[in-house]
Design goal:
Blueprint (H helix, E strand, L loop, with lengths): L10 E4 L9 H28 L6 H18 L2 H7 L6 E3 H34 L4 H4 L2 H24 L11 E2 L6 H5 L7 H33 L4 H29 L6 H25 L2 H32 L1
Parallel strand pairs: 1-3
Antiparallel strand pairs: 1-2
Helix pairs in contact: 1-2, 1-3, 1-10, 1-11, 2-4, 2-6, 2-10, 4-6, 4-8, 4-9, 8-9, 9-10
Length: 324
């Protein structure tokens, strides 16, 4: 198409979560607190894993990387969404919109594959415990972290390749709080049916294949430990419950939005909030409150940093008493 026939859109209008002026201040407070909790909770996991030598194992290494990706998933759009709750006109430039599309598929695609890496780690730990440290060597752990980023990059570039050059010449309102690919492509001045099919095929393949790999791995683990002692079975179930919860909370909305062909965009908006904000805040809760080692390491970290402050307070109080 000849671009001279169109006045190219230079910015998009994000309709946000709600048009109610009375509700927006309440949403501003709620999502500000949620985002702060995401940053603090996931940063605490990363700090705990890196500072405690007892947690320098493959499982916690992957967990720290999951927390880092959760911070990225929550940060690509949430700060702007929070800021937009305070303004009437919620606009975003064309370049920033394309950047949001790039990062959401980079981080979300990477997290899908990282969850598969974590499932593989649990499979080796539960099904082949005697060979665990041999199989899950440092080199293998690094590869299991690099692969998700590579696949996420390939996935997002393939999505962006047929989106960035679309002609946008008229409607520019995106009914969401960030630039979501299915919503943006529908604003193009050409028939995007084929492109929509490519989006479904690309995102659908990554999400469904990752989800099926996770289901298969969890099934194999449960079959393997079925004939073991009840204690082993209980421990395996406890570990898998946390993983399955995370997988369900993350993959459910993603599959519904990008694969289900009859989804409603009003529903998509709620689900987008779920996997960009709710899941990143639940992951620290799920992986720490059910894990004795993490709780013990956090207690140790707390005492390490609070004790010097307490000593300084005592010394300060003693000095003030002496001066009196």
């Amino acid at each position: 198409m000849n671009d001279t026939n169109y006045s190219r859109v230079t910015e998009f209008v994000l309709l946000g979560l709600s048009n109610s002026e009375e509700l927006q201040p309440f949403l501003f407070v709620i999502f500000s607190l949620l985002y702060l909790a995401i940053l603090l909770g996931n940063s605490l996991i990363i700090l705990t894993v890196t500072s405690d030598a007892r947690l320098h194992s493959p499982m916690y290494f992957l967990l720290a990387n999951l927390s880092f990706i959760d911070i990225c998933v929550a940060s690509f759009a949430t700060p702007k969404m929070i800021a937009d709750l305070l303004v009437e006109q919620k606009t975003i430039s064309f370049e920033a919109c394309m950047a949001q599309i790039f990062f959401v598929h980079l981080f979300a695609g990477g997290e899908m594959v990282l969850l598969v890496s974590m499932a593989y780690d649990r499979y080796v730990a539960i099904c082949k415990p005697l060979h665990y440290m041999t199989i899950m060597s440092r080199r293998v752990c690094i590869i299991l972290v690099i692969i998700p980023w590579c696949i996420g990059l390939i996935h997002t570039l393939s999505q962006l390749a047929f989106t960035v050059n679309l002609p946008f010449c008229g409607p520019n309102e995106v009914d969401s709080f960030f630039c979501d690919l299915p919503l943006v492509t529908k604003l193009a001045c050409i028939d995007t049916y084929i492109i929509s099919l490519l989006i479904v095929a690309d995102s659908g393949f990554l999400s469904t294949s990752s989800f099926l790999l996770l289901v298969v791995s969890y099934t194999v683990i449960l079959i393997t430990v079925r004939n073991r002692s009840s204690a082993s079975m209980a421990k395996a179930r406890s570990t898998l419950t946390a993983h399955i919860t995370v997988v369900t909370l993350f993959f459910g909305p993603c599959i519904f939005i990008y694969v289900w062909p009859f989804s409603s965009y009003s529903v998509d908006k709620v689900l987008a909030v779920f996997y960009t904000i709710i899941t990143p805040i639940l992951n620290p809760v799920i992986y720490t409150l059910r894990n004795k080692d993490m709780k013990a390491a956090m207690s140790k970290l707390k005492s390490r940093y609070l004790k010097p402050r307490q000593m300084a307070t005592v010394i300060g109080n003693t000095f003030s008493l002496e001066t009196k």
